[in-house]
Design goal:
transmembrane helix; mainly alpha; 21 helices; MFS nicotinic acid transporter-like protein Tna1; MFS_trans_sf; membrane
Length: 511
């Protein structure tokens, strides 16, 4: 076990972002009997660094683009009902305002209920099987949404859509965390999640175009939005069988040496997330009993609750801001705020990786959203309100990706991380039920209730939760650096200490 002085130095390096030299020296000293063969034994540090850069580039090209594309489709499919609404969905199906909001809410109920289980299924079934399967299933649900004729049919298809989509977002974040070091994960998660903002942007354009098919085969434009996007999802799901790769120890696109390199670099980063591990209920209870799970769930509630309120109702909000504009123009005006959110998401992902200050990034960025929704509440000027939607997107989207990266960095263990992410993301998505019911038609055009609830979510849970969680993690790091947690490892073998994951006395949390 490292001395208190060594851990104090390492803790300072973590908080200052000065990693590579001291951290690598510290970790190498901890791992003397590494069972994973070193394919680069005898090479100089410069040669190793060159090989590592080449490997990282290979991983990025194989993993990130396609997975980001899948999430773009996923987010497009779950939120395009907002575009369909302003094209006549509610009137054609004779839905009351309460019934329309119920069709939004039912998605999040099934989505949240099944999320904690999906990462276990992903690990057991393999990503190359699990992800294509759920895509085909939700594509079928999406297509049938365009064939419904009443409220009951729409409710049924939305329930099964939520069930089928539940595995993608937590699954891919968990999957990517099993490939990258903690200091590399944030920017990749940000790029992946920026697809959600692009989906909002692209969705407005796509919906505006597809809606022009109204009348073809006797179907209204909103029905064609669901049908065509659903068929596209099914086709992409089938192709994904060849495009989605398994975990590092089984990935066929890597040579044996490259697989060992990936596993060794994860091990050097205090991770065991790519290794084989049989599921045991103790990993489930480790997650449930860990206060970090619930701290991050609160933060993610603040981010995700606002995300869905924003994405589901932005077209409606803009329509009310500019009542003289057509539904097509309203869809097009929703594009720029999403684009701004996507750009800042990637920027914050990069900054958080470089500084290793994910908590501070959350705290700072959430202020953009808080100011944006204050503008929406305080002003009746459409131009000021439209500017507020930009700040809202910029305050919401980066925090979603950053919070997931922050949680992934600080939860170690193959199944514990998977279960924790399932709970965190599931609880956040359950708040979509709230988001679906706060923008009431009777509150138009100012939507004080909706904007007020979103503002409270951002101020209390996103901003306040980030401040509190960062404080608690910093306090715990100081205790570990002083050696106050060394007793946790006394009497345990090296393997038993390794199985402790983030509860190891020498594991320092990312702030």
């Amino acid at each position: 076990m490292a001395s208190a002085m060594e851990k104090e130095r390492y803790s300072n390096d973590v908080s200052d972002g000065k990693l590579e030299g001291q951290k690598r020296e510290y970790l190498d000293a901890q791992q003397t009997n590494d069972p994973i063969p070193d394919p680069d034994a005898g090479l100089s540090p410069e040669e190793r660094a060159a090989i590592d850069r080449k490997l990282l580039k290979k991983l990025d090209l194989r993993l990130i683009p396609w997975l980001s594309f899948l999430y773009l489709i996923s987010f497009l499919d779950r939120t395009n009902i907002g575009n369909a609404k302003i094209d006549g969905l509610q009137e054609d199906l004779n839905l009351t305002n309460g019934q329309y909001n119920a069709t939004l809410s039912i998605f999040f109920v099934s989505y949240s209920v099944f999320e904690p289980l999906t990462n276990i299924l992903l690990k057991k079934m393999r990503p190359s099987i699990f992800i294509p399967l759920i895509m085909v299933l939700w594509g079928i649900c999406m297509t049938t949404m365009g064939l419904v004729h009443n409220y009951e049919g729409l409710m049924t298809t939305r329930w099964f859509l939520g069930m089928a989509e539940a595995g993608l977002f937590p699954g891919v974040n968990y999957y990517l965390s099993c490939w990258y070091k903690r200091s590399e994960f944030g920017i990749r998660a940000a790029i992946f999640f920026s697809a959600a903002a692009l989906a909002g942007s692209f969705g407005g354009l796509l919906a505006a175009g597809i809606a022009q098919m109204g009348g073809v085969a006797g179907k209204p434009g909103w029905a064609w939005i669901f049908i065509l996007e659903g068929v596209a999802t099914i086709l992409v799901g089938i192709v994904s069988y060849w495009m989605v790769h398994d975990f590092p120890d089984e990935a066929t696109f890597l040579s044996t040496d490259d697989r060992n390199r990936v596993l060794r670099r994860l091990r050097a980063d205090q991770q065991a997330s790519a290794s084989h591990e049989s599921f045991k209920m103790k990993y489930f209870w480790q997650s449930v009993k860990d206060s970090k799970t619930w701290c991050y769930a609160v933060i993610y509630m603040g981010a995700d609750g606002t995300l869905y309120a924003f994405s589901l109702f932005l077209p409606t909000i803009i329509r009310q801001l500019f009542p003289d504009k057509s539904s097509t123009v309203a869809n097009l005006l929703s594009v720029p705020p999403y684009a701004a959110g996507a750009i800042l998401t990637i920027v914050i992902g990069y900054i958080a990786d470089r500084t290793r200050q994910r908590g501070l990034c959350n705290i700072f960025v959430s202020l953009f959203g808080i100011v944006g929704f204050i503008m929406l509440i305080a002003s009746s000027d459409p131009k000021v309100n439209y500017a507020g939607t930009f700040l809202g997107a910029m305050g919401i989207y980066p925090c979603v990706a950053n919070t997931i990266s922050w949680a992934s960095n600080n939860v170690e263990g193959v199944y514990k991380r998977g279960v924790s992410l399932g709970f965190i993301i599931g609880w956040g998505n359950l708040n979509g039920v709230v988001s679906s019911n706060i923008y009431r038609a009777k509150d138009a055009p100012r939507f004080f209730v909706g904007h007020g609830v979103v503002l409270a979510y951002m101020a209390l849970w996103l901003f306040g939760g980030s401040v509190m969680t960062r404080f608690l993690l910093a306090r715990e790091n100081k205790k570990r650096a002083r050696g106050e947690r060394d007793g946790w490892a006394e009497g345990k073998s090296e393997d038993q200490v390794h199985e402790m994951g983030d509860m190891r006395p020498d594991f320092m949390y990312m702030l």
